[in-house]
Design brief:
The protein is mainly alpha-helical. The chain is globular, with a radius of gyration of 18 Å. Helix 1 crosses helix 2, helix 2 packs antiparallel against helix 6 and helix 7 packs antiparallel against helix 9.
Length: 253
């Protein structure tokens, strides 16, 4: 029963992620036809399901020092990464950008592990984690190009990068109080730990910086595409980052 419940929970998360990012952001941003969308959906759903399964392996190594790569937890994590890569190759959904996202995912796990095991992080560490944590959805975006045998649209990937970071920060706002109560890692909670009551102003400045980066990249696109792309991207992060929670008492991870 527990395994069935776990599978159902993972499936719900997969559908939510694919709906928010793939159906409502990446597909329309790439102007895909219905046939192209249908072709991409099954491999993307499978890949995201495997990514969530991989998260279970990641949870097992949290708080354990991965500097010693002989640890069993790290070995299991690497096994899952290798299986995911093998499936992506089998699906013909693998390219150099997908490979980069797999590498970025490992960087994220290592950095998060160092922070949660040492309970020490500076401003740069926290922001780097926020930037790396969207690796799973970036992987899905890059899979689209591989599946359709297209070269990656570097400008579009650059445009989405700050949007993905902002959306992730907004997600942490919505989960902030629950994460504090459960002592789970949360970007905003870490910044509160570093800066206390000054954290909201600092976070607002970072949100503005990422948004300015998004708007600067948007200028690369033809004028006739800008309004549509801007509308798609604002729907992904703007409301989620509008209200910054009041800082709660600090926690340790």
């Amino acid at each position: 029963m527990n395994s069935i419940r776990k599978a159902a929970e993972i499936s719900a998360k997969v559908l939510d992620t694919v709906n928010n990012y793939v159906f409502h952001l990446y597909f329309p941003a790439n102007n895909l036809s219905l046939v192209e969308r249908v072709r991409c959906v099954p491999p993307i759903l499978l890949a995201e399901f495997l990514v969530y399964r991989l998260d279970s392996a990641v949870e097992q190594v949290q708080g354990i020092d991965l500097q010693d790569e002989r640890g069993g937890g790290y070995g299991e994590f690497r096994t899952h990464i290798a299986k995911l890569e093998s499936v992506l190759r089998w699906l013909h959904a693998y390219n150099k950008e997908v490979a980069r996202q797999l590498e970025a995912g490992e960087q994220y796990v290592r950095l998060e592990n160092r922070v949660t095991s040492s309970r020490v992080a500076d401003h740069a560490d926290v922001l780097r984690l926020a930037e790396l944590r969207s690796t799973d959805v970036r992987l899905l975006h890059n899979m689209i190009f591989a599946l359709l045998r297209r070269p990656c649209d570097e400008d579009l990937l650059d445009l989405m990068w700050p949007v993905e970071v902002l959306a992730d920060i907004g997600s942490d706002f919505s989960h902030y109080s629950d994460d504090v109560a459960a002592a789970r890692y949360n970007t905003y909670a870490m910044l509160v730990k570093l800066y206390g009551d000054a954290a909201p102003d600092l976070v607002r400045a970072e949100i503005t910086r990422y948004e300015q980066q998004f708007l600067a990249v948007l200028e690369r696109f033809p004028e006739e595409r800008r309004a549509g792309l801007k509308s798609l991207c604002l729907r992904r992060y703007k409301q989620a980052t509008a209200d910054i929670p009041r800082p709660l008492p600090q926690i340790d991870y």
